[in-house]
Specification:
Layout lengths: L6 E3 L5 E6 L3 H11 L5 E7 L2 H11 L3 E5 L7 H11 L4 E7 L2 H13 L3 E5 L6 H17 L2 E3 L35 E6 L3 H8 L11 E5 L5 H10 L5 E4 L10 E4 L5 E7 L2 E7 L11 H12 L3 E5 L8 H9 L3 E5 L9 H7 L5 E3 L1 H11 L4
Parallel strand pairs: 1-7, 2-3, 2-4, 4-5, 5-6, 8-9, 8-14, 9-11, 10-11, 14-15, 15-16
Antiparallel strand pairs: 12-13
Helix pairs in contact: 1-5, 2-3, 3-4, 8-9
């Protein structure tokens, strides 16, 4: 995983972006969309990976947007070279929303790409295409940077492995009095496929709890992610379907474009999927899963928030903590982006702030499987 701390920009600094794509139309479209933001400057373009590598020293970009299918040198090969030669350089893949595009994008993420934006065809007009690109790509570029005097400066420091401050309005619950968890819920976004690939294989086949997981991804991507993880994990990993049983021995991943919730009936707990409005601009949303788990399980939940942009999961975590649930978050040093876990930690809601490699051992300890 390409873990690089957020770079500090001084006021007036601009983020330098290079666009690598074999389509002249796409290069122009991406350039025009990005340069609508005053913080971003497109410093150069390239039509394939070989030319792009030659131009990195010339343009000195902070971020590269990288197409996958290109002649001479494709995006995956360029990415491999970038990770060897320019490990600090941020890379956002620009892939087609097809089965092959999703599969290759997941491969790129395992090779060290920081994030991706899916191309959507048939937008209907240039203005709509430009607006979608602007709305999706600009936040993903800016997530890796912060301006001096903003955001992180206002956040209180967080120490690893410390007890969290109580939630406002919640009754303090001693650690020893907390309920034994009946379910593990996980939320993750940017950097998620690599983080999940690193930790989920550590769960033993005898793990006694169901695991429900929200990864911010569109349709196709979530199914392929589940298939990829299932090939390496002792537990069965599936993209969730309506009515799936929530049971031990299985990891269920929310499908793209559907919120995943839980409901009880007939003595069992099942998955409920819906397309209610987006939460935090996301569907699936971590908040939707966490809030549903809080309502059904009360405090008998172990919630984990891993690397990701934004604050999805913060509201749901507040609901869980108010009922006495345990909350673990990934630490900043091992996160690709410390947005989601940082929001929870800085709100005083985390029982543990953990390096990625310690997340599963701590879960096993809490559930009595260490």
């Amino acid at each position: 995983m390409a873990v690089v701390n957020r770079r500090l920009l001084q006021p007036g600094d601009r983020i330098r972006v290079m666009v690598v794509d074999d389509s002249v139309v796409i290069r122009r479209l991406v350039t025009q969309a990005l340069e609508q933001d005053p913080m971003i400057e497109v410093v150069g373009t390239a039509s394939n990976g070989a030319i792009g590598l030659q131009r990195i020293p010339q343009f000195n970009p902070d971020v590269i947007t990288l197409d996958i299918e290109m002649p001479d040198m494709n995006g995956l090969e360029m990415l491999r070279r970038i990770r060897r030669e320019y490990p600090q350089l941020r890379v956002i893949m620009f892939s087609t929303l097809t089965e092959r595009g999703a599969a290759v994008t997941l491969e790129a993420l395992t090779l060290g790409a920081d994030d991706y934006v899916a191309k959507v065809s048939n937008e209907g007009s240039l203005d709509r295409s430009m607006a979608r690109l602007r709305d999706e790509m600009i936040p993903k570029i800016k997530q890796f940077f912060r301006v001096a005097g903003q955001s992180a400066a206002a956040a209180p420091p967080v120490q690893a492995n410390v007890s969290a401050a109580p939630v406002a309005g919640a009754r303090p619950i001693a650690q020893s009095l907390k309920l034994r968890p009946k379910v593990v819920v996980i939320g993750v976004s940017t950097g998620g496929p690599t983080a999940l690939g690193a930790i989920l294989p550590s769960f033993p086949t005898s793990f006694p709890l169901p695991i429900l997981l929200v990864q911010h991804m569109p349709p196709l991507f979530t199914r392929l992610l589940a298939e990829r993880l299932n090939a390496t994990c002792p537990l069965k990993v599936e993209e969730a379907s309506e009515g799936d049983l929530v049971e031990a021995g299985k990891i269920l991943i929310a499908p793209g474009d559907f919120h995943m919730k839980v409901a009880s009936g007939g003595g069992v707990i099942r998955v409920c999927l819906d397309q209610s409005p987006r939460q935090n601009s996301c569907r699936p949303a971590v908040d939707a899963l966490f809030a549903s788990a809080a309502e059904l399980y009360g405090g008998a939940v172990l919630a984990v928030v891993l690397t990701g942009m934004g604050q999805d999961g913060l509201h749901g975590t507040k609901l869980l903590k108010a009922r006495g649930a345990r909350v673990f978050v990934q630490d900043e040093a091992s996160s690709v982006v410390w947005g989601m876990p940082g929001a929870v930690a800085n709100a005083g809601l985390a029982d543990r702030v953990l390096p990625l490699e310690e997340v599963v051992p701590e879960i096993l300890s809490v559930t009595g499987r260490n």
